[in-house]
Each structure stands twice: as C-alpha cells, then as structure tokens.
Design a protein that fits this description.
Elements lengths: L1 E7 L5 H17 L8 E9 L9 E9 L6 E7 L2 H27 L9 H15 L1
Parallel strand pairs: 1-2
Antiparallel strand pairs: 2-3, 3-4
Helix pairs in contact: 1-2
Length: 132
C-alpha cells in the first residue's frame, strides 16, 4: 500500500502522519488482499485562511485508488484536524465495504435480474421444459 499525505497551509507533523497510518490500519486489515496495489492519498487544507495565517476550519480529502475498481473519494470538514481525518477515513472504509459487498452481489447474480444464479438457471430450465 502506498500512502501519500499532502499538507496545505498546515505544518508537516510526524505525529499526524503516524495518526493517519494508525487510522488506516483498520482499512488495510479489512482489505489486506488489495494492499500491494492500493494507493491512498490524504490531502489536508485550512479553509478560510486569513492573512494572519490562522483558521479554525480544516478540510480533509481522502482518496482510495484500487486496481480494477472505481476510485473512492471522501471529503470532510471540521475544526479539529484529527477528528476530521478520522471521519474521512471511516467514510472511506464504509464506502469500500459497501462497494465490495455490491461487487460480491453482482458476481452472484445473472444478468440484470437480482435473483441468485442458481434460482435464475433453475427458472430458465423450468420454462424450457414446460414450453415443449
């Protein structure tokens, strides 16, 4: 897994980097089979930054790029950087979990119907035998 962190108008902090890695550990553990090809980028920025350089509002954009799947993006805003990072990563995990369930469901269905494959095949064979 590749992790990229970008800071915009925020001081680079090794403690914040370790916090992000700690929060991403659950995502890596859940989707360990993607670890080699996953790329996660976290972009942090201050919103409404004044000339004095102070702002109480932060924005975090977390992006998960996976092979042969759509890219998931989560954007959160808030006053505490750590809480916003945690919310963005949790949202990313939720989206990845939901997407993997939908991909699993689509593999088990036939065509556009939402019936499981065994039931659909059984109905098709039953229709063929009753028509003759």
């Amino acid at each position: 897994m590749q992790l990229e962190t970008e800071y915009h108008h925020i001081k680079v902090s090794p403690a914040l980097n370790t916090y992000i890695e700690k929060k991403l550990h659950t995502l890596m553990r859940r989707f360990h089979h993607w670890n080699d090809a996953m790329r996660i980028s976290v972009h942090m920025d201050q919103i409404n930054r004044k000339k004095t350089g102070s702002s109480k509002l932060f924005a975090v954009t977390a992006k998960l790029v996976r092979p042969r799947a759509k890219t998931l993006v989560s954007q959160k805003k808030g006053s505490d950087v750590r809480k916003v990072v945690a919310q963005a990563i949790e949202a990313l995990e939720t989206m990845a979990r939901r997407d993997s369930k939908m991909r699993e469901h689509s593999r088990k269905t036939l065509g556009r119907s939402r019936k499981p494959v065994k039931e659909a095949v059984w109905e098709m064979t039953r229709e063929r035998t009753t028509k003759h």
